[in-house]
Amino acid sequence: MQSNILDPTPSRMSDAIPTRPAASQPSADQAAPTRRVALRDSAKAEAGRYRIIEAIRSGQRHEPAVHAELANLTDAETIAKIDDFQLWYGKNQAIHHVNINVARGKVTALIGPSGCGKSTLLRSVNRLNDLIDGVRVAGSITINGRQVFGPGVDVINLRKRVGMVFQKPNPFPMSIFDNVVYRLRIDGERSKSTLEAASEKALRGAALWEEVKDRLKDSAVGLSGGQQQRLCIARAIVADPEMLLLDEPCSALDPIATLRIEELIHEIAERYTVLIVTHNMQQAARVSDYTAFMYLGRLVEFGPTKLIFQSPQLPETEDYVMGRFG
Amino acid sequence: MTGSAYNSYTRIVSFVAAALCTIFAFGIVAVLCLVVFYLFGKGASALSWQFFTELPGTDPQNPKGMRHALEGTLIMVSLAAAVGVPLGILVGVYLSEYSSEKFLPTTVRFVADVLAGVPSIVVGILGYELLVVPMGTNSGYAGAAALAFIMIPIVARTTEEMLKLVPKSYREGSLALGATKSQTILKVVLPAATGSIVTGVLLAIARAAGETAPLLFTALSSQYLTRDPSQPFPSLTVQIYNYATGPFQGQRTLAWAGILVLISLFFVLSLAVRWLTRRAVIKMV
Amino acid sequence: MLLLVLLASVVVVLFKGALPAIEHFGAKFLVTSEWRVNEVERPLRDAVGKIQFDADGEQIIETIPQAFGALPTMYGTAVSSSLALLFAVPLALGSALFLVRLAPKFKLAAPIGFLIEFLASIPSIAYGVWGLFVLAPFLQSHIGPFVRDLLLDVPGLRWMFFETVTIAGQTSEREIPMVGRSMLCAGLVLAIMILPIITSVSRDVLRAVPRTQVEGSLALGATWWQSSWMMLKYARSGLFGAVMLGLARAAGETMAVAMVIGNANAINPSPFSPGQTMASLLANEFNDPGEKLHRPSLMYVALILLVMSLTFNIVARWLVVGKKQ
Questions:
Q1: What's the predicted TM-score (pTM) here?
Q2: For chain A, what is the mean pLDDT?
Q3: Do residue C223 and residue A168 have CB atoms under 8 angstroms apart?
Q4: Other chains touching A, judged by 3 or more CB pairs under 8 Å
Q5: Domain residue extents for chain C
Q6: What is the Cα–Cα distance from B130 to C13, expressed in whole angstroms?
Q7: Tens digits of per-residue pLDDT, A277-300?
Q8: In terms of domains, do B37 and B71 share one?
Q9: Contact B113 C115 (CB under 8 A)
Q10: Are the C-beta atoms of B79 and B144 separated by less than 8 Å?
Q11: CATH code for the domain in which residue B209 is found
């Protein structure tokens, strides 16, 4: 199933015919680009070094390198399954035939140069892309075996099961306490003691309790950027979501606030599976267990973070994580 | 009430709210369109060629036309524009281009906003005290001055907004070629924003042409074709007001026709403004 | 500079014109409700309404001096504007939400937006003529009686339809006639006039709400209405500004109101009774002033009107524009 065939034109998933047997470790020469494309990214790049990237650029089929450990995850170990997923904005295809298994209780990072579709993919998991006009999808995403797309799916319930934290902290214009319990309030929870208990638990979970416990009634907008972002994390975990989506959660923060959030991600990952998008390679290396490298809407390589950063299977992945390309 | 019962409750609330918002929007448009269509219909049956070519005549029960009022509005608005537009643009240019000093422009901008909020009837009283009393008679000049008073803040603020949209690189490019600041403004900045400034001017002219209250005490009105603005002066809006509140059926009929002409004028102006702003935006991009 | 001179001249001229009235009435002007343009001479009556005679059997004539108080007109402005807001604000905010969050999906935002802007530009005299010839008669013959039949038995609402009057010492209750040209009619016409303005300003304010706010609440599983409520909350100061802008327009509106409010210079609690606003009073009386203190009193009213609508405008602009910078 990790075999992934690319078709340069938008097609429905049934049109994608596997022409190669499943291979967990396709070597570079197994990819089949024939056309040469000039590479401007790196003068050092030897011609033909980036076989897969060249294939993607010329719109040809390619085989992503998916490490065996992830290819062989059992259903019990998998919380979310992104299966041959494609997405179009109007006529432009933004995501092509992506397969990613998100491992339960782990941190999975999506990396890649801007425009590679990693944020779009993340926002597909809780269907936030629905807000944009002219979005079409094909393939499937499941969370704990339940479909994300499909006719009978209740988007509101889906979003209640999946927490999300955005690039820029977006506290609501109300008190810290009201922010944290917003998720419970929209479910009709009115009991003061329940709300207080839940907010303390969530704020402790987001490592913010000690800093704000004396001023829960203050406006959330008065907090520092890092505190606001941890508040947003508390808000997202207050109702114990099945998984947590983080969309470049530190990109608007200073280095020290970033560090605290990264520590926090480690801690929450034990309880909530985390899928995080980041453009910061070091961050991916620090916080994640698995890393997926995407390029121009395609998956290039997906494996344990350690291997991706130390001995990736593809030279382009190696060069990208070393900052030599992209 | 929690759990799924509450869930379906919130969804019903949400659906009802969305439906209400939709109904409100269409309701507003429908009601307002009904009003306008009613005015159109009533006016269309009352409108005749005479309206444009004839004066009220000697029979107050059956006035024939409003040519004098149309011409009066045209003359007074032109006079007001001749004074108000250049002054307004000057103030706007000052606000946008010379606002490096902090205090004064902020004050001027504030004053412009405040002036735009002066109730039009108060403008009329001001015109009466400052011009009618010293001159000893109601006059077209006083009416035009009151209208200019209303136009200046509108023109000034739109000019400022539009000039601010002109990219900084235009100014820097011109200054870098050795042009002085005033040359830059006259030859580069103003031409780049002409389209949108015209829009602002049109809006101001429309506003002035539709005003009634400031003319009540300044220009007053007249039943005769007069081209001498030092005398009491007719205008479309005041004439409509007088006829609509007058006792005779013939006068009311003419008032309806006047309303039709007025609204048609505004519709054309709205279209023009929309067309101009679109073009202006394209030009900027 | 020019603008400063203009603004200063407004204030100075009004103040100078109003000075005799200010000196004569002072702040009492704001709280008294008599409006007697000319001195009145009438036979003196005692408490039960009997005409008094002097020792020679002649009627005693009392002279009642001119009296001016702005209270009825201030009351009229406040009530007609409040009525207008009451009708217009929910409709305008709902439509603005529709324009921002629903209309783009159906490609309706541009055409409806254009219509609303056109309707906002129509001169008030047109709405006034419509109110005078269409709405007022309709209120008198249909809506008024209908509402009366509907609410007559509701306890606590009797004051809307009956008034107590004292004639010649006798107090009696009588039905308020449905006149059409009334406070309610003015409120409705004003509501129709300010609807497009409040709608278009609120639409711009709501459009400026950051995407992340809406997405943030949607991502937590909020329904359309719950996330819209979040939007309204985020934009509340701007929306309040939009409402203030509408209020300023309603309070300063002259012609339309003068045509439909009925021009009765007294405080009548019923919305079906005629009233008077500051602006309509000026439109009606300024051109034809009585003697002595009449014109200064009108100038005093104009001064109050100016101060009031400037306050609304400044607050509104500060809320809509100032906070953005």
A1: 0.82
A2: 81
A3: no
A4: B, C
A5: 72-167+179-293+303-324
A6: 8
A7: 998 888 999 999 999 999 888 898
A8: no
A9: no
A10: yes
A11: 1.10.3720.10
Mutate to test the interface with B, among A155, A156, A191 (most CBs of B within 10 A): A156
Are B277 and B196 within 8 A, CB to CB?
Answer: yes
Q: Check pLDDT > 90 for residue A196.
A: yes
Per-position DSSP letters for C10-73, written without gaps between them: HHHHHHHHHHHHHHHHGGGGGT---EESS-EEEE-B-TTSPBPB-TTSPBPEEEEPPEE--HHH
pLDDT: is A36 or B25 the higher one? B25
Which structural domain, as residue segments, surrounds residue B67? 50-284
User: pLDDT (tens digit, 9 = 90+) per residue, A134-180?
Assistant: 889 999 999 988 899 988 888 898 999 999 999 999 999 899 999 99
Could you please report the per-residue DSSP string of C143-179? IHHHHHHHHTTSTT-GGGTEEEEEETTEEEEEEPP--
Choose the weakest-confidence range: A3-17, A39-53, A232-246.
A3-17
Q: Do B268 and B238 lie in a common domain?
A: yes
Pick the CATH number of A13-321 from 3.30.230.10, 3.90.580.10, 3.50.50.60, 3.40.50.300: 3.40.50.300
Residues B65 and B92 in one domain: yes
User: What is the 3-state secondary structure of A117-185?
Assistant: CHHHHHHHHCCHHHHCCCEEEEEEEEECCEECCCCCCCHHHHHHHEEEECCCCCCCCCEHHHHHCHHHH
C166 phi/psi in degrees, rounded to 5: -115, 110
CATH superfamily, domain C72-167+179-293+303-324, is MetI-like (1.10.3720.10)
| Average pLDDT rounded to a whole number, residues A181-206 | 91
Instruction: Compare CB distances from C254 to B14, B121, B129 and report the shortest one's residue.
Output: B121
Which residues lie below 8 Å from residue C307, measured CB to CB, with a gap of 6+?
none
What is the rounded distance in angstroms from the CA atom of residue A296 to the CA atom of residue A288?
A: 22
A135 touches chain C (CB under 8 A): no
- Domain check: are B75 and B162 in the same one? yes
Domain count, chain B: 2
Q: Coil, helix or strand for C281?
A: helix
- Phi, psi (deg, nearest 5) at residue C22: -65, -45
Nearest CA in chain B to A155: B11
CB-CB under 8 Å, A170 with C215: yes
